[in-house]
What does this fold into?
Amino acid sequence: MLSQTSKTAIKAVIYLSLTSRQGSRAGIREVAEKIDANEHTVGKILQMLARKGCINSLKGPAGGFFLNEQQQQQPISDIVETFEGKGLFRECGLGLSKCSASHPCPIHDEYKVARDLVEKLFREKRVQDLCDPVTNGEAYLIG
It folds into this structure.
């Protein structure tokens, strides 16, 4: 359901949340290393997230990317919708443009249930909620 870009963005924001809580900022290279992702890709992702206001960035020797308290409280859906668009949670599971309840694809009903659960998860979980298990060693950002 999620693109690789969205998955990488979520991991990057969680990592930035961790560093921001410690009063630090992180550069592109550091984020890429810590989430095991391509540095060029991470750079583009972080720039887009900063433009959309999901994260902050400062230039210069003491610069880097970081999250403020309000950004720590944002739902994960803000990050996902930056890359997938707002229609992600309304799309057909088979990619059909005219799929609907009155004109369903073969998996319409089952996919709608799964899609609605994922949407609920991403709208209810905040960045901080995903950061806490990583901080406590209960979850990881790289496999």
About this structure: The helical segments are 4-21, 28-35, 39-52, 69-72, 76-84, 108-124, 127-135. Strands lie at 56-58, 64-66. Residues 72 and 127 are 5 Å apart (CA to CA).
